[in-house]
């Protein structure tokens, strides 16, 4: 039983670090002189990666991005990726 808790904690920490890395990457793209479109597309790519990870990895899934059922999480993350990508396309170039 103790091994299961240790594995779950390690998996949770790893997924949290990957999620934070995606947010940091998006923030870096947004602040280091890249266009707002590039930042929006970077965030959309991070959301797609989260949706794919949630869809493919076994239950209980990556703890940092697991909220409800698998397919509800995947649908919400993929939908947000599409919306952010569309908004990124509609943003004026800077």
Summary?
With 94 residues, the chain is mainly α.
Task: Write up what this structure looks like.
Helices cover 77% and strands 0% of the residues. The chain is an all-alpha fold. Helix 2 packs antiparallel against helix 3. The longest helix has 30 residues. It is flat.
Spell out the blueprint of helices and strands:
Layout: H1 2-31, H2 36-56, H3 70-90
Helix pairs in contact: 1-2, 2-3
Question: What attributes characterize this protein structure?
Answer:
94 residues, mainly alpha, flat
Multimeric state of these chains? single chain
| Total number of helices | 3
Given the C-alpha coordinates, what overall shape results? flat
Unreliable stretches: none
Roughly what is the average pLDDT, rounded to an integer?
85
Which strand-content bin applies to the residues?
under 5%
Indicate the structural class: mainly alpha
How many beta-strand segments? 0
Q: Helix content range of the residues, please?
A: over 70%
| String of helices and strands | HHH
Q: Major sheet, described briefly?
A: none
Radius of gyration: 15 Å
What separation lies between the terminal Cα atoms?
Answer: 54 Å
């Amino acid at each position: 039983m103790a091994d299961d808790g240790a594995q779950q904690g390690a998996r949770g920490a790893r997924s949290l670090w990957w999620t934070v890395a995606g947010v940091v990457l998006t923030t870096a793209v947004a602040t280091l002189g890249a266009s707002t479109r590039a930042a929006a597309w970077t965030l959309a790519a991070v959301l797609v990666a989260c949706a794919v990870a949630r869809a493919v990895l076994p239950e209980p899934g990556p703890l940092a991005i697991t909220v409800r059922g698998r397919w509800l999480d995947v649908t919400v993350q993929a939908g947000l990726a599409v919306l952010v990508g569309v908004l990124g396309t509609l943003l004026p170039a800077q």
